[in-house]
Amino acid sequence: TALLALAFLALVGGLVSELVAYSAVQPPDMAEVLFAVRLSLTTATASSVLATLAAIPVAYLLSRYRFPGKALLDTLLDLPIVLSPIALGALLLIFFRTPPGRVVESLLGPFVFEVRGIVLAQLVVVIGLAIRLLKATFDGIDPEYEHLARTLGYDRVRVFQKVLLPMAAPGLVATLMLVWGRAIGEFGATVMLAGATTMKTETLPVAIHLNFEAADITSAMIFIAVLLAISFGVLLAVRRLHGRTL
């Protein structure tokens, strides 16, 4: 464990030393940095909130009920976790070339090479993770609490709202934060569906890719440092949250 920690610290130390050396030679474009940070924060927040809200009823259904095809549905919902994000992005791109996809775009607006495409790509990538985390949360809550509330006259909806959701609140918050952290680092599906256009669909991971391609090492390292700091902060917050609920 100590060796792994030291190896990771060495990687971070190397980034810091190189960043100091390069920044003295070529200052970064802070407008591009701020744009990528704002876009990443906005799209990751939108996609993670949507994923968490959509995952709540699905995770509850999988946790509390048995029904025909449950194993198949459970397996299908795990596909976004194991399937390559690039493959997911390609599937989305192909979908929007079909008649149903064109109908969706006519109703909701264009997704291909647009910011809303970033949100959709992130949503598809993280939805499986959100469902899996929330299912584990609901599995950890004793159903007897719900049965007791039913004997007191609560219907299923009120039991869900007044009993289950408050008990699952720490897990919901942790799920939202972990999904948000995964969404902000998403690259493969995003670049396939929304493209990689500077100052338009340039999230932090896309900015890293673009600046390395342009041999702008200073900017690329700054984007890496920002993404690293955000990811570390999210993980630290989740660990502190879990520590309070143990």
Q: How many strands appear in the DSSP assignment?
A: 0
Order of helices and strands: HHHHHHHHHHH
Distance between the termini: 23 Å
The fraction of residues in strands falls at: under 5%
Output mean pLDDT.
86
The biggest beta sheet reads: none
Computed CA radius of gyration, to the nearest angstrom: 21 Å
Low-confidence stretches: none
Shape call: globular
Helix content: over 70%
Q: Which structural class do the helices and strands define?
A: mainly alpha
Total helices: the number is: 11
Task: Write the topology of this structure.
Elements: H1 2-23, H2 30-64, H3 70-82, H4 85-95, H5 99-108, H6 115-139, H7 144-151, H8 156-184, H9 188-193, H10 204-213, H11 217-245
Description:
The chain has 246 residues and is an all-alpha fold. It is 80% helix and 0% strand. α6 crosses α8, α7 runs antiparallel to α8 and α8 runs antiparallel to α11.
What keyword list fits this structure?
globular; 11 helices; mainly alpha; single chain; 246 residues
Please provide a brief summary of the model.
Helices cover 80% and strands 0% of the residues. The protein has 246 residues and is mostly helical.
